[in-house]
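Sample entry (204 residues):
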Amino acid sequence: MKALLDFVPLIIFFYLYKTVEPHDTQHPLLQLIGSAGGVDNNNILVATTGLMLSMLLVYGVMFVMQKYRLDKQQWIVLFMTVIFGGVTLMLSDDFYIRLKAVLLNLVFAGAFLLSPYFMKDRRPLIQRLFGPVFELSAKGWKKLNYAWAGMFAVMSFLHCFFAYLFLDGKYWGEFTAFGDMIVMFSFIIVQFIVLRKYFKSSAQ
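Predicted structure, serialized as C-alpha cells:
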C-alpha cells in the first residue's frame, strides 16, 4: 500500500505535464495558488503544483499510517520537493524543479558514500537496508554500498541530461515520471541476480 502511494504524485505530475497546454495561463491550479503563469512552460508549472499538493496529501496519509512519523528519506524528498517546487512557482521558472532530482540523487549518492564514516557503528548504509537479506563480508558490503552510491550518481547525471542537455528537455517529464524508476528497478534486479547465492536462508 505504501509503495503504491509513493507513485501517486508522479502519476499526477506526468498526467498534468502531458495534458496541460504550455501557454495556458488560466489553468485552475495556477489560479488556486495565485500564479500568473509563465510564457510557454505552464504545463510544468501546473504539474509542479499538482506534484506538491498530492505529495503533501500522500505524505500526510503516510505520516498517519506510519504512526505519526516519516522516514529520513521521505523527509528529504518532501523537503526538496516543497523547496524547489516553491521556488519554481514563485519565479515561474521550471529550471528549479528540473534541478530538484539532480540534487536529490546526489544527496542519496553522498549519503551512501559517506555512511561508513558517520554511522555510529561504522556500517555502510546499504548493510542497514539489506542486512536481513544478504550474508556478505565487510568488503562485500562496502562494494555493494559503492555500487548504490554510483547508481544514484548515474541517476543524477541522467536527470541532468534529460532536463538540460538532450533536445532542450523534451523528454524530461517522461524520464522524471518513469525513467528513473526503470533505472532503479533494473539495478535492483541485477543486484539480486548477482548476489543470489548470498541470500540468507531465512530470506530464501
